[in-house]
Amino acid sequence: MLSNPLIPITTSPPLSKFSVSGLMFLSFHHLLLLSFYVSMELVPNPLHDMFMKDPNHTVLLSILCCFEAFFGFTFLTTMPVSEENYAVEHICLLFANGALAGQMIYLIDHPVLFWGILCGWSLAFIIDFCYLAKDIWYQICSKISPCCISSCCIPRSKKKKPEGEALNDNATEEEIVLGLLDRINQEYDKVQKTAQDIKDYFGV
Fold this sequence. Notes:
Elements: H1 20-42, H2 46-52, H3 56-76, H4 87-106, H5 111-144, H6 173-202
């Protein structure tokens, strides 16, 4: 009796940290935070007078920069993998957050802060686009017309694997079983050949 299975059991890869709902929830809080800062700058109220005084005003804007950096890094660390087909949604959410931050901070009338945060979000967008470019083109092409998908726009994980490395996803159960049996026979022949080589080496 065999103690180990002929076909090794592979563990599933770890789940991705990306989710559209999670990033939309984060974007909502990003909007609330920007609204708070803009209201503190533009709407006359007791808090406005307190925050506008130096150094409170500088501290407030410094905290805003830290939050913007946090949101940008969060987007960069939650890029979807190719199998999830969410590259377009991810880069659109990142662009929307960057555009929203630029427009809201433009109302504050602080040029240094505006250009600094705009450059930061632009850099995050460029990095995100460079990393997900093929996934984005593949997702767009597959929605428009599957026939127009070429090898140049196939993402990393969707490229054809070498022959014999993986079974066809559209194969029937009979073809899968025959393929597995063929692999088992190939492995058995390799073991027999190795055993025979060992016997010949020791002269058994």
